[in-house]
Amino acid sequence: MERLTTAERILAAARGILDREGAAAVTMRSVARQVKITPMAIYRHFPDREGLLDALANQGFAELAAQLQQIALPKGWEAKLLRMSDVHLDHAMAHPHLFNLMFLTRRPGARRYPQDFQARRSPTASLLMDELGAGMKAGVLRRGKPWEIALHLGALSHGLITLYLGDRIGTSPQGFRELYRTAFRTYFHGLLA
Q1: Which end of the chain is more exposed for a tag (fewer CB within 10 A), N or C?
Q2: Structure confidence at residue 191 (pLDDT)
């Protein structure tokens, strides 16, 4: 069995705390206790708590991007974009505290619109922009700025997920999924060429 480095053990412990209790519970002391090292030892691997949280968020983005890259996308622009939005929703529902850290928590290392989208620094937005760009090039989608539309779709997704996780949408998980997909279809139809 492959042994984890100390940095990997720190990240794994921090991720466990994040998944159970949220970002506020991820402290150098709580992580050190889990790893059985001193809190000061963490600073050899991460500059500070914010650096550790950024590493967790980046790990989440890498996981989500890998999931998006591994799925078989169906034919048709709407089916492809809906499948991608489903993967995003599944990831958020499986890891609500990670979703919050990735998309809603202020972090020094968080990517920003528009410069990071245009420079393709967002592993998840870049995949979406590729599909949008292909749809525009094929003449199926109206011409526009893929990075801007990716932001719109992200805002739609994150807004709905945040409302649902905050118990502001009183429906079953399946009912929410249907509402979520209907919102995306409505937006997609506005993109038709």
Answers
A1: N
A2: 74
Domain segments of the chain as ranges? 1-46, 58-189
* Residues facing residue 192 across a β-bridge: 141
Q: Are 147 and 157 in contact (CB under 8 A)?
A: no
168 vs 109: CA distance, rounded Å: 29
| Highest CATH level, class, for 58-189 | mainly alpha
Query: pLDDT tens digits for 104-130?
Result: 999 988 999 999 999 999 999 999 999
DSSP letters for 132-177: HHHHHHTTSB----HHHHHHHHHHHHHHHHHHHHTT-S-S-HHHHH
* 1: pLDDT strictly greater than 50: no
pTM of the model: 0.92
